[in-house]
Design a protein that fits this description.
alpha+beta, 4 strands, 55% helix, 100 residues, four-stranded mixed beta sheet
């Protein structure tokens, strides 16, 4: 697992405009089936975790929960617990870096 490179990739996706941030925007993109990957902070609240995990599972969108809120926030420059990556290329690369 290469968390540092994966976090750098998240920052790049943010700057490229290939990401939505925040619970509501991410849920909207999950429902529209435009999210290629959902990243949920490992320290998010139980209700948030359940809501995001259930929606991701229902719409068969991969979900990673290996980063803390602080790590996600530092990578994208905004305090967020949930992000959705919209681009397949970025999503695939982040998954490769984390899952090996």
């Amino acid at each position: 697992m290469n968390k540092t490179k994966a976090l750098n990739m998240l920052g790049l996706a943010m700057r490229a405009g290939k990401m939505v941030t925040g619970e509501e925007m991410t849920l909207k993109e999950i429902r529209n089936e435009k999210a290629a990957l959902v990243i949920l902070a490992s320290d998010a609240g139980k209700n948030t975790q359940k809501k995001i995990k259930d929606k991701s599972s229902y719409y068969e969108i991969p979900l990673l929960d290996v980063f803390s809120t602080d790590e996600i926030s530092a990578a994208i420059g905004k305090p967020r617990m949930v992000i959705g990556i919209l681009d397949q290329g970025f999503a695939r690369k982040v998954q490769e870096l984390i899952l090996g």
